Every structure is written in C-alpha cells, then in structure tokens.
Amino acid sequence: MNRRSILYSLFVFVLYIMLQVFLFDNMVLFGTAFCFIYIGFILLLPFEISKVMLILFGFMTGFTIDIFYSSLGVNAASATLIAYLRPYWLSAITPSAGYEDVHQPAMRIMGFSWFITYALPLIFLHHLSLFFIEAGEMYHFWLIVKKTFFSTIFTFAMLVIGQNLFYNRERMI
C-alpha cells in the first residue's frame, strides 16, 4: 500500500467507526435486526493488502468498536474472523482469469451479483460469531439464528446504499 492509500484507508476507518458509534448504534429494526456497518471497512479494503495487515485491521476495527460499546472483545473476535477468512473466500470466488486491474472489491466496480456472492457470506459469519459469542451458550439457538439472518440483510442493505451514495469509480484507489 502506498502512502495515499494508507491515508485514504485511515480516513475510511474513522468514518466507518463514527458511523457505527454515532448513527448505527441505536438503529435496530424490530428488536431483531442490528446494523454493523463497520465491517464494511474490512470488506472494502484493497485486494492486494497482505493477510497480516488485513487481520491487524480487522482486530483494530473490532477492538475500537469494543472500546465504544464496552463489549469485552466480541466485535474484535468477529471482525478478526472475517478478516482472516476474507482472502480464502476471495480466492474461492476469483474467476480463473483474475481481476484484471481492479484494486478494491467495491460493488460499483465488480457488480451487484459479485458483491452479493462476496459480502453476504462474510457478513453472515461475522454476525453469527458475534451473536454466539455474545450469548455465551446454545440455549437461545433460534433467536441467534433469527438475529443473524435479519442483521445480515440489514447490514448488507446499508453497505449497498452507502456504496451507491458515496463511492464512484473515479475516486476508487
């Protein structure tokens, strides 16, 4: 990563954290669907980022949210999990010809159907791990699955809306 992309990533990191803490913290639909927009930072990091940096960014993002939420590492564990799994998932869905000159897995560049294939499983795994760790037991299994399903849809919808509003092809790094 060059200096410009590091500064841009730092700005985007602060933006996602502020959105999560100040806007999406209290945004809950029907007591079931929670929005964890901060994982968009991890999902939209450039393709060429190293695995170590990706995991460090994942942990740092989740840990920062844990500081604001006083949640004892729940977000850090879940964000680190998807940061760890992201390169493997990307290699599983990569076409045989590769990604040409694409640097970032953004919806506007890759297309909506590709973004669904890429983001939904990672968002689902993040939410599933987060709610299971938070519950601490299997007693509330169906409630956890319900919260995971609806929160995944809610978070994905907010990421799609955010990308349509704020990202454009010319500005992508």
Q: Mind telling me the C-alpha Rg?
A: 16 Å
Number of strands: 2
Distance between the termini: 10 Å
- Helix run count: 7
Mean pLDDT: 85
Order of helices and strands: HEEHHHHHH
Give the strand order of the largest sheet, numbering strands 1, 2, ... along the chain.
Answer: 1-2
Strand content range: under 5%
> Helices and strands: which structural class?
mainly alpha
- The coarse silhouette is globular
Total domain modules: 1
Major β-sheet, in short?
A: 2 strands, antiparallel
Fraction in helix: 55-70%
Unreliable stretches (pLDDT < 50, length at least 5) are none
Structure commentary:
By secondary structure, the protein is mainly alpha-helical. It has one domain (3-166). Helices cover 69% and strands 2% of the residues. A two-stranded antiparallel ribbon has the order 1-2. Helix 1 (3-24) runs parallel beside helix 3 and helix 6 runs antiparallel to helix 7 (141-166). The longest helix is centred in the C-terminal third of the chain and has 26 residues, at 141-166. It starts with a helix and ends in a 7-residue tail after the last helix. 26% of the residues are buried.
